[in-house]
């Protein structure tokens, strides 16, 4: 007759942290195996930004103007990088909601696992795939004529800002995914698309009407994109407003604020699921 032995639960903060990171590694590995076995999902997430780059770069690019002058393709690419990071929320929302609908989340919750560790595993997996998305999009940018003008150091800092934005929005996606059905998650792109347009992704806010310019300049995506343009050395008139003059600070502050708000909300929602 076999006897099951319950695992010893961690008591000290160090043990809890080690427990959480161990669970995160296992969950992240599980998610990555799913990506490898179903690469079509990654291709679908890449298809839209690649089509947009070609469309705006070659079809509309000749008719677009950049406030302050400069090549539109170089103006466009940091905006496309930022938009891709935002649209990554869609895959996060859908994957989390699908796991909840299929009972995967309930199975994790029935095990002696760390709530934070399970969600961090999801975040790590999404960060790895988002990094791959960004690398492929950067290579596509080089093909259409985009260039880095300020050297490798500032360019890596810009990439770090983009990934920080993605990491912050992962927690928004997890929080939404734990509340939505897979059908509802499929419509997550609807509020995100205007959010990425009401920013400096495709046109300078200085070319927008006055009230819309204010909305665009205070958009968190605008801060990240403008900071990336400055770090890459790409064209784009910053403007004289406070958010335009402090884009780098806001590009760090906005994602950190989002993490502080949505990470605890995600963990709380996970623990109270189905209550």
From TrEMBL:
Protein origin, superkingdom: Bacteria
Organism placement in taxonomy: Bacteria, Bacillati, Actinomycetota, Actinomycetes, Streptosporangiales
Domain ABC transmembrane type-2: 40-273
Transmembrane segments: 40-60, 80-102, 123-146, 152-174, 186-203, 247-267
Position of the signal peptide: none
Species name: Streptosporangium fragile
Keywords: Antibiotic resistance, Cell membrane, Membrane, Transmembrane, Transmembrane helix, Transport
Primary subcellular site in the record, as a coarse category: membrane
Cell compartment(s), UniProt: Cell membrane; Membrane
Family affiliation: Belongs to the ABC-2 integral membrane protein family.
PANTHER family associated with the record: NODULATION PROTEIN J (PTHR43229)
InterPro entries reported for this sequence: ABC2_TM, ABC2_TM_bact-type, ABC_2_transport, Nod_factor_ABC_transporter
Protein name: Transport permease protein
Topology class, membrane: Multi-pass membrane protein
């Amino acid at each position: 007759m076999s006897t099951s032995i319950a695992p010893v639960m961690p008591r000290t903060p160090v043990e809890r942290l080690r427990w959480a990171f161990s669970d995160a590694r296992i969950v992240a590995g599980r998610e990555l195996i799913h990506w490898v076995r179903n690469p079509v999902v990654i291709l679908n997430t890449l298809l839209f930004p690649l089509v947009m780059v070609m469309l705006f770069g070659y079809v509309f690019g000749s008719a677009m103007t950049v406030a302050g002058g400069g090549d539109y393709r170089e103006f466009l690419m940091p905006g496309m990088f930022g938009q891709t990071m935002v649209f990554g929320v869609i895959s996060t929302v859908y994957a989390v909601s699908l796991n909840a609908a299929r009972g995967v989340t309930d199975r994790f919750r029935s095990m002696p696992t760390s709530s934070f560790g399970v969600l961090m595993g999801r975040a790590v997996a999404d960060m790895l795939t988002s990094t791959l998305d960004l690398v492929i999009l950067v290579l596509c940018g080089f093909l259409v004529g985009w260039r880095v003008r300020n050297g490798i150091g500032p360019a890596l800092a810009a990439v770090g800002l983009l990934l920080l934005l993605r990491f912050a929005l992962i927690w928004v996606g997890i929080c939404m995914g734990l509340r939505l059905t897979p059908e509802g998650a499929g419509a997550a792109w609807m509020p995100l698309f205007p959010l990425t347009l009401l920013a400096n992704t495709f046109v300078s806010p200085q070319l927008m009407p006055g009230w819309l310019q204010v909305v665009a300049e205070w958009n968190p995506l605008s801060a990240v994109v403008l900071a990336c343009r400055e770090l890459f050395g790409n064209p784009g008139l910053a403007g004289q407003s406070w958010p335009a003059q402090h884009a780098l600070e806001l590009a760090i502050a906005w994602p950190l604020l989002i993490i502080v708000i949505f990470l605890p909300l995600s963990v709380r929602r996970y623990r109270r699921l189905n209550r």
